[in-house]
Amino acid sequence: MTQSTHDPSPEAIAQGVDEEAVESNRRLYTGWQWILFAVLAITYAVFHLVSLNVLPMETWSYRIVHICGALILGFALYTGVRFSEPDQPGSRPWVKGLGYLLLLPAAYALLQVWLMQRTLAGGAMRIDAAVEAWHFGYPLMLATFAAIVLSWFQRQHRERLASADLALMACAVASAAYLLLIYNTPMRMSTGTAFAPPGIAYAAIAGSALILELTRRVAGLALVIISVLFLAYVFAGPYLPGFLGYPGLSVQRFFSQVYTDAGILGPTTAVSSTYIILFIIFAAFLQASKVGDYFVNFAFAAAGRARGGPAKVSIFASGLMGMINGTSAGNVVSTGSLTIPLMKKVGYPGKSAGAIEAAASTGGQIMPPIMGAGAFIMAEITGIPYTEIAVAALIPAILYFASVYFMVDFEAARKGMQGMRKEEIPQFRRLVKQVYLFAPIVILIAALFMGYSVIRAGTLATASAAVVSWLSPYKMGPRAILKALQLAGTMSIQIIAVCACAGLIVGVISLTGVGARFSSLLLGLAGVSQLLALFFAMCISILLGMGMPTTAAYAVAASVVAPGLINIGIQPLVAHFFVFYFAVVSAITPPVALASYAAAGISGANAMATSVTSFKVGLAAFIVPFMFFYSPALLMEGSWLQILRVGVTATLGIVLLAAAVQAWFFGPVKAWQRLLMLVGALCMIYGGIYTDVAGLAIGALLFLMQRGSHGGGTKAATSG
Q1: What angle do CA 115, 120, 125 make, to 5 degrees?
Q2: What distance lies between CA 546 and its chain's CA centroid?
Q3: Nearest CA to 358 among 543, 528, 600, 661?
Q4: Contact assessment for residue 598 and residue 407, using Cβ atoms and an 8 Å cutoff
Q5: How far apart are CA 39 and CA 718, in angstroms?
Q6: Quick one: which of 245, 249, 247 has its CA closest to 258?
Q7: Phi–psi pair at 78, nearest 5 degrees
Q8: What SS3 state is found at 166?
Q9: Please, which residues bridge with residue 668 across strands?
Q10: Which residues partner with 78 through β-bridges?
């Protein structure tokens, strides 16, 4: 990407980073339909801002509306099958007609909800079970499942809404309307018992199916398959041997409880309906004010001229962007489209360029203060204050990005790469004049540490993004604010669907007790070896996270793995950070590495080779979590002297680790020196006093040897 000839500012090397990414299965409306769904998206975003700050709703009701709104927007904007080509007709007329026909049972179910409301308002204590089944449940189930299957075959042009999806939108409204009605009566207390109204189960089954279908459309099949396996366990579990067996739950009892705060309306939706949606709106305002472009330009100015410059730009820019947008693969697409071609231009192979971008984008998820969205879920699940989690994440984030940085720097030195020319990068002194664009993030951090709630701090930061834009060329007037709200409503669909789907899995875990049985398994392993138990927990966390967005990966792993780690004596903060790290790095772990695959698509390299290389670049992320257990000072647990010592020695250990992997320090490194470096690195990362002394001694010895052999003609390894 080159500088625009229309932009007089020489610092505008990066443009379009803030542009909205449009997925291949996303509809692009025109005319009145575009206006209609833009208004719906804006209304959805405004609803959350008002509910969170001005007019709070009852908790369950708010979460039901939150999910229902995402389902309506999701089925309107994302197709269930490939679009038909512009020069080809869509599906046959009878398929389209069948979709409209399915609107009838959906509308009938919705009408019955209104009639039930009238009945309850007239003084009735409950609804007749036969009425709920025959006049609400069966029509809703028919419309939902038939429309889902029909949507897999109804192909339309990209600017047209499929009739089957219109039926699914009606089903979402009918299901949510019934749940809103019943959960605002005393019958809410009967969920999970034999006295629960049967309609709750029907509404929950339909709602779960709609969530799974939307998740398939916006996040792929991986999470859907895992969810279906967990649902199958509910009914197959009583027939399984060993620790997997459990007494069993009936369909009625399970589904009457899974759409409550024990499952879908539980912690994952609690976070998506508060913190996540708020920070999506914040990110949309930052995009509208072109802060993302500024972040990338700032990174180019700061690191572009260093050896392997574009790779270091990728580290800084992707870390900043990934911290805000919360998705590794999405961040790869937005910043990687600029940085990957430039990395290849200065000499990085395609697989290395893609791997560096994937590793840096993934690291954004562990970068405080925002940390994607995982920190908010961690705070919700553990009850640990968000600010404490953000502070604890600081040293691990430094270690991760130091690892990626030195991996990049040593590879650039080994291959004799140069940085970008002065005229190819923005002028730092001119960009510094726009440093006020960092103000929204500074305000966010300051508000959090001044004691403001996360919601209030996020709202202040969002408002400040609009105010700060008036000092830049991209002033946000009413039209730009509406555009940002529309973008927020659209961006939120994927993460809300994923969180609701993860809530379904969490519900299975809590209602069947499989999490407790897994904890007992870890406890048994810990009796043999705690390291073995940790290794097993790592494998499960990565396995559960493969192919899943970070938020869902952590939510599921936190329900399955973290309780077991806590039961073997690990502190809750350490246990959850351990799980969180491996849920995050599953995005760069072969064989299913979403962030690496997205980067390979841009670099043109082999996807598997890129994922293996990204695993190597992000190697520190697979070692550091084990150190949380042996040295809690890495998570700010301990005296300042301990924290300082462990932080410094672990960072030096990371440098040695990068040198060992890349076979370069101040010059080429021999095989026996690489082995010695690896030992020294692990000693310093471990964090014990004696191991630190041993690691420092090894590091000093290697430093003197390398300086003696290569110091005269080679720049220091830490240059650039």
Answers
A1: 135
A2: 13
A3: 600
A4: no
A5: 52
A6: 249
A7: -120, 130
A8: helix
A9: 664
A10: 26
φ, ψ (nearest 5 deg) of residue 403: -60, -50
Q: CB-hemisphere CA count at 13 Å for 489?
A: 27
- The structure tokens listed for 373 are 């969205």
Give residue-wise pLDDT tens across range 579-597: 999 988 888 988 778 888 8
Q: What global pTM score does this model have?
A: 0.86
CA distance 174 to 187: 18
Q: How far is CA 460 from the centre of its chain?
A: 23
Contact status, residue 577 vs residue 636, Cβ threshold 8 Å: no
Which helix or strand (DSSP H or E) is residue 177 part of? Answer: helix 163-183
Residue whose structure tokens are 């996360």: 454
The answer to whether the beta carbons of residues 649 and 390 sit under 8 Å apart is: no
560: tokens are: 């399955």
Burial readout 73-90 (b: 16 or more C-beta within 10 A, e: otherwise): bbbbbbbbbebbeeeeeb
Q: Give residue-wise pLDDT tens across range 212-233.
A: 999 999 988 888 998 999 999 9
Q: How many residues appear in the chain? A: 720
Q: Which of the pair, 432 or 21, is modelled with greater confidence?
A: 432
Dump strand ranges (E) for 275-361. none
Query: Among 164, 166, 156, which residue's Cα sits nearest to residue 92?
Result: 156
Lowest model confidence (mean pLDDT) among 98-112, 167-181, 256-270: 256-270
Q: How many helices (H) and strands (E) in the chain?
A: 34, 0
Token reading at 347? 């000499």
**Whether residue 591 has a cis bond before it, omega within 30° of 0:** yes
Residues 288-319 have pLDDT tens digits of 887 767 777 777 777 777 777 788 878 877 77
Bridge partners, 664 (sequence order): 668
425: left (phi over 0), alpha (psi -120 to 50) or beta: beta
Dump the DSSP string for 15-70: -STTSPP--TTB----HHHHHHHHHHHHHHHHHHHHHHHTSPPPHHHHHHHHHHHH
104 Rama class: left (phi>0) / alpha (psi -120 to 50) / beta: alpha
628 with 577: CB under 8 angstroms? yes
**Per-residue tokens: 656:** 């040695």
Query: 416: exposed, middle or buried (C-beta count within 10 Å: 0-12, 13-18, 19+)?
Result: exposed
Residue with tokens 């996270």: 545
At 400, the amino acid letter reads Y
315 to 335, 362, 448: CA distances (angstroms): 10, 10, 26
3-state secondary structure of 106: helix
Report how far residue 42's alpha carbon sits from residue 135's, in angstroms, rounded to the nearest whole number: 34
DSSP-derived secondary structure letter, 82: P
Confidence of residue 6 (pLDDT cuts 50, 70, 90): very low
Find the radius of gyration of the CA atoms of the chain: 27
Q: Is the dihedral of CA 31, 35, 40, 41 positive or negative?
A: positive
